[in-house]
TrEMBL record:
InterPro entries named in the record: FG-GAP, Integrin_alpha_N
Pfam families associated with the record: FG-GAP_3
UniProt key word Signal: yes
Name recorded for this polypeptide: Secretion system C-terminal sorting domain-containing protein
The keyword Oxidoreductase is annotated on this UniProt entry: no
Organism, scientific name: candidate division WOR_3 bacterium SM23_60
Keywords, comma-separated and alphabetical: Signal
């Protein structure tokens, strides 16, 4: 059943169009050389915490969310030389967030085991020259989490196979991927296993490696002349049930995506050019239209923005914006944005004001009368009813969190009713 908390007034639908408003919340502004941030529930208390890496401070830390988006910093490491990428995930299956990170000058990929907030370091490798990017996924489909890395100085993409007890065996995917700057994993060919994607800054390449089993990978080029390719991400951007690819090129000054035709033939679409130092990329649905916007950060333009069915610059004053991520930070049903900025020493999140609808139980309304009708409490309509809800900008909204505001409800008979949330 579809639940809404409203009172209803007969009205006409007014098609207006607007943009999402973003409210900035600073998590820290003294994390020296804040180069990377990621968000995950670290302490298993159902809210979203933040992990970060600081290039100048050689530090890894996490920020505990008290449930109201107030964050307390906790140090994990303070001598991780050239800390540059961090990823939070439950690596050992004990229901809390562990941390994986790279250290460029230490040539190291390591993980920290979380035991009730006490972190123990485990070195995966310290012979990975220029260790830069890290990601984690089950590459061999054996039910545990493996680790992927990209090393700029050694032009290498590698992965470390988890034996199920966090013992790791190294496998090289490529040792000739010039200035390997980014690594990611997704099932690109929809065959049920995880493939690997990478970006090469000197090679100007966006590529993917097909997982053929038995630790074997076959390289395929997506773009071979994407100048200064430095970041890659993969998801079904256009909602056609295959995996597309997004990338940032810091010399091309471009954020682009490559549309998968369904047979791993990719067509490039430039989303924005002239974005000075475009260096990070992610994708998320910010307006609940079932297609993804591509989120990007630009180093020299100090910018975080997104492009797609809707587009907006969130900030252009985030000094040396270096990483970007999207997640529902405040548990209100929409995607917020998390970013880090090296020169600003900052990790910041931006709260989206996008409106949605929750689903749950409540008062059953079989037929709403024409004219003014007030409904109190949690209310819902029959699931079989043809009901569409729009926000005041004219966007149809789906089943997510409904913030206080004005909406329009279109019912079976094409009658349109004004909805005012009174939560």
């Amino acid at each position: 059943m579809n639940r809404i908390s409203v009172f209803l007034i007969l009205c006409s639908l007014v098609p207006l169009f607007g943009q999402i408003t973003w409210t900035e919340h600073n998590i820290t502004s003294d994390f020296d050389g804040a180069i990377w941030s990621h968000a995950v529930d670290m302490d298993n208390d159902t809210d979203i915490d933040v992990v970060g890496a600081a290039w100048e401070a050689d530090a890894i830390a996490w920020w505990e969310n008290d449930g109201n988006e107030n964050f307390t910093e906790h140090e994990i490491a303070s001598s991780f030389d050239g800390a540059c990428c961090v990823f939070g995930i439950d690596l050992d299956g004990d229901d809390d967030g562990d941390v994986i990170a790279t250290a460029y000058f230490d040539n190291t990929v390591a993980w920290w085991e979380n035991n009730a907030g006490v972190f123990t370091q485990h070195v995966i490798t310290n012979t990975f020259p220029g260790a830069y990017s890290v990601y984690a996924a089950d590459l061999d489909d054996d039910g545990d989490i493996d680790i992927l890395g990209a090393a700029r100085a050694s032009n290498t993409i590698a992965w470390w196979e988890n034996n199920g007890s966090q013992g790791f065996t190294e496998h090289f995917i490529s040792t000739a991927f010039l200035d390997a700057s980014s690594v990611y994993a997704a099932d690109v060919d929809s065959d049920g296993d995880m493939d690997v994607l990478g970006a090469a800054g000197i090679g100007d390449d966006i590529a993917w490696w097909e997982n053929i089993g038995s630790q074997g990978f076959v390289q395929h080029t997506i773009a071979g002349n994407f100048n200064g390719a430095t970041a890659v991400y993969a998801a079904d951007i256009d909602n056609d049930n295959d995996i597309d690819v997004a990338g940032a090129g810091y010399l091309a000054n471009t954020i682009a995506w490559w549309e998968n035709a369904g047979n791993q033939v990719f067509t490039q679409h430039n989303l924005i050019t002239g974005l000075n130092g475009a260096g990070a990329v992610y994708a998320a649905d910010f307006n609940n239209d079932d297609t993804l916007e591509v989120l990007g950060a630009a180093w020299y333009a100090n910018t975080i923005g997104y492009w797609g069915s809707i587009s907006s610059i969130i900030t252009n004053t985030f000094d040396y914006a270096h990483s970007v991520f999207a997640i529902d930070m405040d548990n209100d049903g929409d995607n917020d944005v998390l970013g880090s900025a090296i020169n600003a020493d900052a990790i910041t999140w931006w709260e989206s004001d996008f409106v949605g609808i929750k689903e749950n139980k409540g008062t059953h309304i079989d037929n709403a009368a024409f004219g003014a009708t007030i409904i109190t409490g949690q209310s819902f309509l029959p699931k079989e009813s043809k009901v569409r809800v729009y926000d005041i900008s004219g966007r149809q909204v789906t089943s997510n969190s409904l913030k206080p505001g004005v909406y329009f409800l279109k019912t079976d008979g094409n009658s349109v009713r004004k909805i005012v949330s009174i939560k």
